[in-house]
């Protein structure tokens, strides 16, 4: 599971921005999902098999200014039409947005969707100048996108690249960079020099939109996200060690931060990630660009998923207990508990 198709990553609206809580003057009705709207959508009959028609519908209904929270630069949405529920995204990817390219995709998906549904209605398209789409760079983190008579300002996520003040980075660790996940949680990506290994720690510098249930003296689970964290009390931090495998199969907004690299900061030259990725994943050395995209596979990037996709809490606990017993150093423990493990359930 070290590769992912990024075009149809299916997520939802994120409601927190950079540091702290969102202080927005937007009308709160924009953050309420109404059954009325869903029912009206299900009774509508747009041409959901035409990506251009669907893009026009989505784009014309956007606010004049939008905020793209995930650091992979995907703007996610859901809509209801023709008796179906659709999930989708549009992206100003760091590697080609300056070439006037916007990626768009959507697919029919029910709430209990698992795996692949080959009968699902959906579509995708790369929009360029030939389609009447005009992208203008305002600055590295703000872009103007015009399609037909409508213009939308895309505000991309600019995060702090400073060292965390609360969590401690060990002597043999390197802070690669920050990330904002579609789950609403923020992370720091860490490279362990001793083990040539990467892992995620929770960014707790400011407000964290999650509540935690303690499983034992070293493990906590997020109530909303299902993310599991190892409580590293020595370094005052939470290390991501597990995500709910069912969410991985559903490819929803709680499937983990494996795709959330700090692309915008790589694009500006503030952060370098390739050398750390290639050190941690030597089999892919020379095969990726500076963002982690595969050079020979368009729309596919390496998945930084150093955690366990669990289907029961006990299976995760057993995995961690084994690491705790067998590890001879803290560094070895950190690498063991963040082994990249995914399997399909029976």
The whole-angstrom Rg is 20 Å
Alpha carbon gap, first and last residue? 17 Å
Helix content: 10-25%
Query: How would you spell out the order of helices and strands?
Result: EHHEEEEEEEEEEEEEEEHHHEEHH
**What profile does the largest beta sheet have?**
5 strands, mixed
Q: Please, how many domains?
A: 2
Structural class by secondary-structure content: alpha+beta
Low-pLDDT runs: 1-25
Shape: globular
- Number of helical runs? 7
What portion of residues belong to β-strands? 25-35%
Query: On the 0-100 scale, what is the average pLDDT?
Result: 89
Main sheet: strand order: 13-14-15-16-18
Number of DSSP strands?
18
Short description:
This protein is α+β, with helices and mostly antiparallel strands. The protein has 7 helices and 18 strands.
Question: Care to describe what's here?
Answer:
The chain is built from 7 helices and 18 strands. It has 346 residues and is α+β, with helices and mostly antiparallel strands. The chain folds into 2 domains: 124 residues, no CATH class; 165 residues, no CATH class. The strands form 5 sheets. The protein has a 5-stranded mixed beta sheet with strand order 13-14-15-16-18. A 4-stranded mixed beta sheet has the order 2-9-8-7. Strand 3 and strand 4 form a beta hairpin. The longest helix has 14 residues. It starts with a strand and ends in a 9-residue tail after the last helix. The relative contact order is 0.15. The N terminus is likely disordered.
């Amino acid at each position: 599971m070290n590769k992912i198709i990024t075009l149809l990553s299916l997520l939802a609206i994120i409601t927190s921005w950079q540091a702290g809580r969102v202080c927005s003057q937007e009308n709160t009705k924009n953050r309420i999902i109404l059954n009325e709207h869903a029912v009206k959508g299900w009774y509508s009959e747009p041409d959901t098999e035409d990506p251009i028609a669907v893009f026009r519908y989505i784009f014309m209904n956007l606010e004049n200014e939008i905020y793209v929270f995930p650091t992979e630069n995907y703007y996610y949405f859901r809509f209801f039409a023709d008796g179906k529920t659709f999930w989708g995204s549009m992206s100003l990817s760091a590697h080609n947005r300056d070439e006037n390219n916007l990626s768009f995709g959507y697919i029919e998906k029910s709430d209990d969707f698992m795996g692949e549904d080959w009968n699902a209605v959906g579509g995708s398209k790369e929009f360029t100048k030939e389609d009447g789409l005009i992208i203008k760079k305002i600055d590295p983190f703000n872009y103007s996108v015009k399609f037909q008579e409508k213009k939308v300002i895309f505000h991309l996520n600019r995060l702090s690249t400073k060292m965390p003040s609360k969590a401690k980075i060990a002597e043999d660790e390197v802070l690669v960079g920050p990330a904002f996940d579609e789950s609403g949680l923020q992370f720091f990506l860490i490279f362990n020099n001793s083990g040539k290994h990467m892992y995620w720690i929770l960014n707790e510098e400011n407000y964290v939109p999650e509540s935690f249930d303690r499983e034992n003296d070293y493990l906590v689970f997020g109530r909303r996200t299902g993310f599991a964290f190892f409580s590293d009390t020595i370094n005052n931090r939470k290390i991501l060690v597990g995500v709910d495998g069912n969410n991985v199969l559903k490819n929803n907004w709680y499937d983990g931060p494996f795709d959330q690299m700090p692309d915008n900061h790589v694009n500006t030259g503030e952060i370098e990630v390739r050398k750390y990725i290639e050190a941690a994943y030597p089999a892919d050395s020379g095969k990726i660009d500076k963002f982690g995209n595969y050079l020979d596979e368009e729309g596919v990037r390496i998945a930084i998923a150093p955690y366990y996709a669990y289907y029961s809490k006990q299976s995760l606990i057993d995995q961690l207990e084994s690491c705790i017993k067998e590890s001879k150093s803290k560094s070895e423990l950190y690498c063991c508990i963040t082994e990249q493990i995914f399997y399909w359930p029976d």
